[in-house]
Write a structure and sequence with these properties.
The complex is a heterodimer of chains A (277) and B (189). By secondary structure, chain A is of the alpha+beta class. Helices cover 58% and strands 20% of the residues of chain A. Chain A has a seven-stranded antiparallel β-sheet, sandwiched between helices. The chains are: A alpha+beta (277), B mainly alpha (189).
């Protein structure tokens, strides 16, 4: 992996937090022993961390709030009062639906010829935007997918449930997610199923299945999709191979640092296993 | 329709984390009254959904609810321009040093005010990971869960937050308090 200045800062920041895997942690310690400059950067980070921990105000809950919260557990009426207060303003702000519809209809009749052309222009714009936004979103997602794969392989969090048995992994995931992802070992030479973790992509919890193919990690992210089925789209992102497809109502993103040919073989194997069940 | 068992679970699982909940809310919405409301809303929701909580980390689960309730609150109560949550009013709440304090205590208070103001001035996305890490001492995994972002993003946001704080707190740095823009006129300070 190439080291950008940002990557280096992230590495050191995670080092100071003790959040790197043992191997990377020791490597940085060795580097620091030989590098005065690196030592100073680490010390500076540690000092900053300490002064924040000691200096920043910790806001403990005021007694009054503590009492209000404790009352929630004993007095049902408190709950409804708070809930009412929480929802009331938004209801009050909305105009009556009937009136709004009548007004809209009146406006429509008055402006029909102009409105038609506006509507057409609007439709074109919206369509263009949807296509464009979709692409931007996919790009950002690809970035997140790669980042998640990279950090997981760098840190201690490759898998939360380490098992090569899908009968163990699938129920573990189902218990932690609001869907049940397809889980399969790959029938490829040199392939090991390491297990799975729950990760976050696209603002929701997703299943991450992790395989080792030779020396390389492969992460396969799965979560429910609203889009129609699509064929795999392959791309390259920061030196990693990615593939994305939708099938059976599930989004699939696969990422690895394998070479493109091997990557395609692995993706095919994942798709076959999935189709087989 | 909360039954007795749920109330007992709520008492055992959620109430012990009231301090953590309020600390997070106060740092996110930056105003005592609104933080209290956000926490209460979060606990009402926690009570309602406590039977869906499975797992062993009640604190992270609860803080996620608190975080979402703060996030919703900020979206509804700040004009769109301010929802990107850059530096704004909270730093103005910091108490100034009283005139008759011994110099050592005054200096320490001054440090505290500087650090608090620097954290308060961080954009929302950086502030939340920093508070969860440094004040709640949570591992990256829990922070990722609470903020609903990949662990890699936790790592990069923390590094960025620290770089911003380092610059803000460096000796001779422009005083953070003076960079704060005036609150807008629509009643929210």
């Amino acid at each position: 992996m190439t080291t950008r200045p940002d990557d280096e800062a992230e590495r050191l920041s995670a080092f100071v937090d003790g959040e790197l895997d043992l191997q990377t942690h020791l490597a940085i310690e060795r580097e620091a022993a030989a590098d005065q400059n690196l030592r100073e950067r680490i010390d500076e980070l540690r000092r900053l961390r300490q002064s924040i921990r000691e200096g920043a105000t910790y806001h403990a809950a005021p007694a009054e709030l503590q009492a209000r919260l404790a009352r929630l557990a004993t007095d049902p009426s408190v709950e409804s009062a708070a809930a009412a207060r929480a929802t009331a303003p938004s209801k009050a702000a909305r105009p009556p639906i009937g009136r709004a519809a009548a007004e809209a209809a009146a406006r429509w009749l008055a402006w029909r010829p102009l409105a038609a052309s506006f509507a057409l222009a609007g439709l074109v714009l919206v369509t263009a935007n949807v296509v464009w936004l979709h692409e931007v979103r996919d790009e950002r997602l690809a970035d997140d997918v790669v980042a998640s794969h990279v950090r997981a392989s760098l840190g201690q969090h490759v898998v939360d449930v380490a098992s090569s048995d899908h009968h163990t992994v699938k129920p573990w995931l189902s218990a932690r997610l609001d869907f049940s992802p397809p889980v399969a070992e790959l029938s490829l030479p040199g392939s090991t199923f390491l297990g799975a973790r729950v990760d976050y992509l696209d603002g929701r919890p997703v299943a991450a299945l992790v395989y080792r193919q030779g020396q390389h990690l492969v992460t396969s992210f799965v979560w429910p999709a609203s889009a129609d089925d699509s064929d795999p789209a392959f791309a390259r992102e920061r030196g990693f191979e990615t593939a994305h497809w939708v099938r059976g109502g599930m989004n699939h993103w696969v990422v690895s640092d394998l070479n493109p040919n091997e990557f395609r073989i692995v993706v095919d194997a994942i798709r076959q296993q999935e189709a087989a069940r | 329709m909360t039954d007795e068992a749920n109330r007992r679970r709520f008492e055992a699982l959620a109430l012990p984390h009231a301090d953590a909940a309020y600390n997070l809310a106060k740092w996110l919405v930056r105003n005592d009254h609104d933080a209290q409301d956000a926490v209460q809303d979060a606990f009402v929701r926690a009570l309602r959904y406590i039977d869906t909580f499975r797992g062993d980390n009640a604190r992270a689960w609860l803080l996620q609810v608190v975080r979402n309730s703060c996030f919703t609150w900020l979206k509804e109560n700040r004009p769109a321009g301010q929802t990107s949550l850059d530096a704004d009013a909270a730093a103005l709440e910091m108490p100034g040093p009283a005139a008759d304090e011994p110099p050592a205590i005054a200096a320490r208070k001054d440090d505290r005010a500087r650090i608090d103001a620097a954290i308060a001035a961080l954009p929302f996305a950086f502030r939340e990971v920093l508070v969860l890490r440094e004040l709640e001492d949570l591992p990256y995994r829990d922070i990722a869960h609470i903020a609903e972002i990949p662990i890699g993003t936790v790592m990069s946001r923390l590094a960025r937050a620290r770089a911003l704080l380092r610059d803000a707190l460096a000796p001779g740095a422009r005083p953070v308090l003076r960079e704060v823009p005036r609150p807008t006129v629509n009643g929210r300070a």
